DNA sequence: CCATTACGCTACGACTCGTAGCGAAAGCGC
DNA sequence: GCGCTTTCGCTACGAGTCGTAGCGTAATGG
């Protein structure tokens, strides 16, 4: 019956201050050393705790970095700018700003790479990082449909697939731009990207500052 | 580099067979062990060469894996299917098939992550992997413009930016789908992606061919 | 035949890993 | 207050990997 009293177990409680210190030290070490040269002993020294304390709370380097990086995405919010295009640009700019930080660059790609051969790690990433981002897509899409900017969904299963697709396109494009092409996803780039996402390759070259045309439905 | 056979330096030449054996052994080790548990000593044993031979040819694990993974992308070709949509679907399916292989999953993401803090490594990746992919986008785009499916370019600098953008969108979406969402980029997904890429979010919900088409899902 | 380079092999110090053991500290129930 | 329980800091340890040096041998060009 220990399902009760989850917080009042007898014994000395874990220091919450140590948690935040360790995660902050992890991000600091990611910036200075990068993923490969980051050692748990170094993180422990930076955080002012013993190395054994780290191993008591996290299974290893992977899980620790996931938690440290996940906190970076807490600030991600969906703006309400009035139009779908503006909402997309706003959230993508936020996402790009987070990915521009060196601790995100160094950490995120590495743990995702590790997660390929570690199912539990992938689930941890999904739950603490990916799912929240996908929720933004879902919310923004629903909002656009309410405004009439996007056609409403008929099949809910089809809608879920579409949200997954959009999420992979948006997040993938920003990640690829930032980490592979290694160039900034600045306002100009985001504007071009949003234009292609909304109107496609064919419509990208046309006039697009005007209000949403009643679309000749070609 | 030595394509000119510069005066044919005296001494015993490097075994070309050893090169291919080492790269094959690297891919094999990537499949079985993944990036983090891959050691150069193990690769040397698999390839049947001495560990010192590895260090004489490659600076370290990063460079070795880049070369091993780069060979996977040699088979990438741009199909000529007659329409831009079909060309996109064809090349994306090829790219997805390569990324589905475990040695590509394990290796590519890890070396890209390492390249964030290693300028020389990033350049090596760009030259041997990324640039060839970008060329496919350039070629496909030119072909589509010739067919009249896309408007011709006016400003060449603007055109370069557009190609970079499309490349990040396409490659990023496939990579994110395969490695982050960890779901297959199969024909159905590729078809949906190509539709969004061509017509945008607004046009994607319309009935292009999703209606009761007798098209048997092969 | 000789200079030059690559190869296989062994050995080495330096480093990190993850764990075990110990005494001390900090809460909770009584 | 008094015990019980859990956490913490610290030290030490075997195991494993790293990258390099040294040596003798094999292969090629002049």
Structure in a nutshell:
Two copies of one chain form a homodimer. Chain A is an all-alpha fold and 218 residues long.
Key structural traits:
homodimer; about 220 residues; mainly alpha; Arc Repressor Mutant, subunit A; Tetracycline Repressor, domain 2; 2 domains; 9 helices; about 0% strand; elongated; disordered N terminus; disordered C terminus; DNA-binding
Order of helices and strands of chain A: HHHHHHHHH
Please report the total strand number of chain A as a whole number. Answer: 0
Shape summary of chain A: elongated
Distance between the termini of chain A: 64 Å
Strand content of chain A: under 5%
Total number of distinct structural domains of chain A: 2
Instruction: Tell me the quaternary state.
Output: homodimer
Task: Work out the helicity level of chain A.
Answer: 55-70%
Can you say what the CATH homologous superfamily of the largest domain in chain A is?
Tetracycline Repressor, domain 2
Query: What would the average pLDDT of chain A be, to the nearest integer?
Result: 90
Largest sheet of chain A: none
CATH architectural group of the largest domain in chain A: Orthogonal Bundle
* SS class of chain A: mainly alpha
Uncertain segments of chain A of ≥5 residues (pLDDT<50)?
A: 1-6, 207-218
Total helices of chain A: the number is 9
Describe this protein's structure.
The structure is a homodimer of 218-residue chains. Chain A is mainly alpha-helical. Chain A has 2 domains: 16-60, Homeodomain-like (Arc Repressor Mutant, subunit A); 70-203, Tetracycline Repressor, domain 2 (Orthogonal Bundle), CATH 1.10.357.10. Chain A is built from 9 helices and no strands. Chain A has helices at residues 16-33, 40-47, 51-57, 61-70, 84-100, 102-115, 119-147, 156-180, 187-204. In chain A, helix 1 (16-33) packs across helix 2, helix 4 crosses helix 6 and helix 4 runs parallel beside helix 7. Chain A is elongated and about 55 Å long. The first copy, chain A, starts with 15 loop residues before the first helix and ends in a 14-residue tail after the last helix. The model of chain A is unreliable at 1-6 and 207-218 (pLDDT under 50). Chains A and B meet through helix 6, helix 8 and helix 9 of A and helix 6, helix 8 and helix 9 of B. Chain A binds a DNA duplex (30 and 30 nucleotides) through helix 3.
């Amino acid at each position: 019956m220990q399902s009760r009293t989850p917080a009042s177990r007898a014994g000395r409680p874990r220091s919450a201050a140590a948690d935040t210190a360790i995660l902050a030290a992890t991000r600091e070490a990611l910036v200075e050393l990068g993923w490969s040269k980051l050692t748990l002993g170094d993180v422990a020294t930076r955080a002012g705790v013993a190395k054994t304390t780290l191993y008591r709370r996290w299974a290893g380097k992977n899980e620790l970095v996931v938690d440290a990086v996940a906190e970076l995405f807490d600030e991600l919010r969906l703006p309400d700018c009035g139009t779908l295009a503006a909402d997309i640009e706003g959230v993508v700019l936020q996402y790009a700003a987070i990915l521009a930080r060196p601790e995100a660059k160094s950490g995120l790609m590495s743990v995702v790479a590790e997660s390929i051969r570690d199912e539990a790690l992938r689930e941890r990433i999904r739950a603490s990082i990916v799912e929240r981002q996908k929720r933004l897509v879902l919310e923004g899409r629903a909002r656009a449909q309410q405004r009439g900017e996007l056609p409403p969904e008929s099949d809910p299963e089809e809608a879920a697939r579409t949200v997954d697709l959009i999420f992979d396109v948006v997040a993938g494009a920003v990640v690829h731009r930032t980490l592979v092409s290694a160039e900034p996803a600045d306002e100009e780039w985001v504007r071009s990207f949003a234009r292609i996402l909304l109107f496609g390759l064919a419509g990208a070259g046309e006039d697009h500052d005007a209000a949403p045309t009643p679309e000749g439905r070609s």
